[in-house]
Amino acid sequence: MKFVVIGGDAAGMSAASRARRLLPDLEVTVLEMTEDVSYSACGMPYNIADPDRDIDDLVVRRADVFRQKQQIDLRTGHRADVIDPRKRTVSGHGPHGEPFTLAYDKLLIATGAVPVMPQVPGHDLPGVLGLKSLADGRRIKQFLAGPAVKRVVIMGMGYIALEMCEALRGRGIAVDMVKPRARFLPAMASDLAQVVHDELTANGVGLHLGRTVERIEETPDGLVVVCNGLRLEADMVLSAMGVLPSSTLAKEAGLDLGPADAVAVDGYLRTSDAHIYAAGDCADAIHVVTGQKTWIPLALRANRAGWAVADNVCGNAVALDGVAGTGVFKVFGLEVARTGLTVDESRSAGFDPVSARIQTRSRAHAHPGAGKIWVEMVGDRASGRLLGVQMVGTEGVAHRVNAPAVALHGQMAVARFAQSDLAYAPPFGPTWDPLLVAANQLLKQL
Amino acid sequence: MKFVVIGGDAAGMSAASRARRLLPDLEVTVLEMTEDVSYSACGMPYNIADPDRDIDDLVVRRADVFRQKQQIDLRTGHRADVIDPRKRTVSGHGPHGEPFTLAYDKLLIATGAVPVMPQVPGHDLPGVLGLKSLADGRRIKQFLAGPAVKRVVIMGMGYIALEMCEALRGRGIAVDMVKPRARFLPAMASDLAQVVHDELTANGVGLHLGRTVERIEETPDGLVVVCNGLRLEADMVLSAMGVLPSSTLAKEAGLDLGPADAVAVDGYLRTSDAHIYAAGDCADAIHVVTGQKTWIPLALRANRAGWAVADNVCGNAVALDGVAGTGVFKVFGLEVARTGLTVDESRSAGFDPVSARIQTRSRAHAHPGAGKIWVEMVGDRASGRLLGVQMVGTEGVAHRVNAPAVALHGQMAVARFAQSDLAYAPPFGPTWDPLLVAANQLLKQL
């Protein structure tokens, strides 16, 4: 049996490796258009923060290990151009433009996501860089290693943009950030977003909301990012305006698409064609809170879905429950996390949301070194169900968010969650965990 | 209506305060035998660690606040000696030995726990101290502030004993610990307990397992703790051999007792007498994993149960689900946590336990500063249910344990838990959270 995988990052290589282990006789071919496979894209900002670390440290497993140890036919520099579902073939071209056509019994589309690039004049100037692939990271590090970069403008204010901001500030570089929308961190309740906003300004970051980039100009001194009513000088401009599912191949093959034009899959990661799977940032998923399709590109889901595809290809039927939209990032002295839905997202999904917002200490009464923790918890008035949690704090946020994430998977009511026997010791929190304080407050309103 | 509370710490004062808020006309009387109410007993080791901090910093709310602001008739120095359930009275004596008898409509027994004290010769020598009440903490601090204490022997190796060990080592004091049983930290899987054992010895602590204290002797140089085959010199001896429920009053009143002779209560915290409640460390609880009665004295449960009693006394019927036995402590560079059952406990409870033990990194691949995390996860072969988790690690353990705790409340199967959408970012863990790695391993065996 021939298993062909398009895309050699998290989902694709997880699927290829696991399928090889499960069925040693399987012919496994992976087509990867770049030269890099299996690397930790999420680690790029942290690697870029440190001039002494090699970007290739982020490679989790080298291509030759897949080729030699696992006997996977891994073809880097190979771009898939056309899928023919009737003939069950993939056609494309290799590193020197040479065409190829491969037959498959089962195909996995794991093409990931493509960065949103601003199509404004000057977007292709030297010094205007994106951050998606390892090659992008390599270019950024090379640029930073060159003639002194003192000022960077980041277009975008999402997780990656904020992590890059911290990385650059840590290298002593002045950072301005611009985004067209007026609201900072819309994925968080506004009061919590304000806490993050204040942390950035306290760290000397210029935050320019409601500014649309109109063009980027080259000057004798460097670059100028021209927005509505604002000109920002820069030695480098970083584009981190989010990503979209890379689903053109799937769309052109006639496969069904879901939210954000991600490739539509069922719980078994099957597309609308019985022989084609999709997994990773290019595919959609069921949201465990809404029960509806959603598109949330996250590394864990990509790995998990890759494994599940391997199981299904190899005859072990494995269905995934879905995602809760759990995410966390660090920015300067803050941990920022969320799971499930915000109030706005809950309303859009048809719930009648009620929320409680609390602020408490990260350690017990009288325990030294405590910081602040803010929690927003959202419940559904009609059913009493927990719908989501957002948290910000100086410590104790990143792993705490996993408890409500599990509760969301269990469709737990706020009243049940409030009864949870959570851990307590003075260095780690107050007797009533911040999540329980929030749940108790929310219960009063439900 | 008259609501009388015996015991003025977590459960008792939580109940009194909340009952007062819920029913302003209620007559609320609290009998507390010591002079201290509402303090953070769990904070004592950390307070003792710092010579410059006052032990009274641990008081959460002062007695006069309860008396004046909340108009609670709080009687410190008042010991309850007899409960007469037929007459609905409590009799006892006040600070000068004066007798009193109080009538009640509803009574709460919140007498807490009593420390296990070794009844060996010399246990009452000066310099042999317990650690349960705030007065004990005061005595220890006074003793440490006196003539140089260079060597301490701690009897016991439980959570509190280990926290005290760290506090004393932090003050430059040599510490030896003894316990009669041969097994270190039986509440943890043995490999994980070994990690903690090694951390203690690496910090210069003498661990003497399988040593029964036979007597404590006074010498011109200080004290000697004499065990079977071992003599340990000390300037101070600390007894931290665990606690037992303080249930004598309840027993003598004819109330039913549960495990460990804790006062037996139902979900509404009602004892076998319809007018008497019990809450806190003196009372038992349902274990959410076994569905059976258990006795696990923990601060959060005490507070929660106190609130529930207030609700029930005031006519808002509130039942508690039970406890998962979630606990965490810090010792030197390690966080140690557990929830649910160990393999041994699972077997005792009638399950057919299977366990997986993994070791992984606390941060992502290639992220600097990562430490180690060990996880043991236990599932039931027959039902596939998650039964418990134990974790040890240099970081990221304390709050991570809350996710499986919530899963235990939801009676979740390991297969469902393994699908949880847990948070990932490079500073906080690998893409596959250590809990998911453990769950995936466990699934292979289930």
Structure description:
Two copies of one chain form a homodimer. By secondary structure, the first copy, chain A, is of the alpha/beta class. Chain A folds into three domains: 2-114 and 243-313, FAD/NAD(P)-binding domain (3-Layer(bba) Sandwich), CATH 3.50.50; 117-239, FAD/NAD(P)-binding domain (3-Layer(bba) Sandwich), CATH 3.50.50; 327-445, FAD/NAD(P)-binding domain (3-Layer(bba) Sandwich). Helices cover 25% and strands 28% of the residues of chain A. Chain A has twelve helices and 25 strands. Chain A has helices at residues 10-22, 44-48, 63-69, 134-145, 159-170, 190-202, 248-252, 299-313, 343-348, 402-409, 414-417, 434-445; strands at 2-6, 27-32, 73-76, 79-84, 89-93, 99-103, 106-109, 113-115, 128-130, 151-155, 174-179, 206-209, 213-219, 222-227, 230-234, 236-239, 243-245, 276-278, 285-286, 293-294, 327-331, 334-340, 353-361, 372-380, 386-393. In chain A, strands 3-2-1-7-18 form a five-stranded parallel beta sheet, with helices on one face. A five-stranded parallel beta sheet of chain A has the order 9-16-10-11-12, with helices on one face. A five-stranded antiparallel beta sheet of chain A has the order 21-22-25-24-23, sandwiched between helices. In chain A, helix 1 (10-22) runs parallel beside helix 8. The longest helix of chain A is centred in the C-terminal third of the chain and has 15 residues, at 299-313. The interface between A and B is large, with 70 and 70 residues.
